[in-house]
Amino acid sequence: MRIIGLTGGMAAGKSTVATLFRRAGVPVFDADACVRRLQGEGGKALPLIEQIFPGTVVEGRLDRGALREIVRTQPDALKRLEAIMHPLVRAERARFLKQCRARKEPFCVLDIPLLMEIGEDRRCDLVVVAEAPMSTRLSRIRQRGRSGARMSMTDAKRLLKRQMSDHERRRRADIVIRTGLSRGHAARQVHALLHRLREAS
Ligand SMILES: Nc1ncnc2c1ncn2[C@@H]1O[C@H](COP(=O)(O)OP(=O)(O)OP(=O)(O)O)[C@@H](O)[C@H]1O
């Protein structure tokens, strides 16, 4: 089985590309959804989070606002949270890969926003980066905003600046899928890639 790592910066179109793979019949592991599941009601992460940040789990539910505030204000909080989340996500990912192998899937996709930052790209057979021009991503981020509100251009730029550069991501990628034009254009690139992979296997 060939493992396709999918990544990209904020609002670069990763989820859109992941959906295109899924619709083409390729199983996708969605790292963000996995984190949401682990931190959702009854999720495996909750008892561990409550242990290191008491008061953040109320009636079996994670108080995301309280956790965000802790992460924002305590210097080592993010590291401690990641120390809980990373092993749990890794275990879920391993389970996904095992299931895919058991089903003899020819390919699978790991949709991981920080794929390169955590060095997982080195363990993938092919690394795909979703990319869109900065101006497109900025306007997508501003449209989306935080909790529904439109974000200022300065905040959006600040968020993007904190991320790995497109140049660095492109350097480490095998394939770049451009999402700056239409969805149809992105779909054609995904289908062409899958066609090439199927021909080669
Ligand atoms: N090819 C495309 N054509 C038009 N709109 C697109 C295209 N790709 C993505 N979009 C839009 O851009 C926005 C961001 O896309 P998406 O959620 O796929 O990005 P993402 O990289 O997963 O974002 P994040 O990681 O920041 O959540 C969405 O509103 C989506 O509908």
Automatic annotation (TrEMBL):
Family annotation (CDD domains): DPCK (cd02022)
Catalytic activity: 3'-dephospho-CoA + ATP = ADP + CoA + H(+)
Gene3D superfamilies reported in the protein's UniProt record: P-loop containing nucleotide triphosphate hydrolases
Keyword Transcription: no
InterPro entries reported for this sequence: Depp_CoAkinase, P-loop_NTPase
Keyword Ligase: no
EC number: 2.7.1.24
Pathway membership, UniProt: Cofactor biosynthesis; coenzyme A biosynthesis; CoA from (R)-pantothenate: step 5/5
Transmembrane segments: none
Positions that bind ATP: A11, A12, G13, K14, S15, T16
Keywords in alphabetical order: ATP-binding, Coenzyme A biosynthesis, Cytoplasm, Kinase, Nucleotide-binding, Transferase
Compartments in which it is found: Cytoplasm
Gene Ontology MF terms: kinase activity
Protein family: Belongs to the CoaE family.
Known role: Catalyzes the phosphorylation of the 3'-hydroxyl group of dephosphocoenzyme A to form coenzyme A.
Name of protein: Dephospho-CoA kinase
UniProt source species: Gluconobacter kondonii
Taxonomic lineage from the root: Bacteria, Pseudomonadati, Pseudomonadota, Alphaproteobacteria, Acetobacterales
Gene: coaE
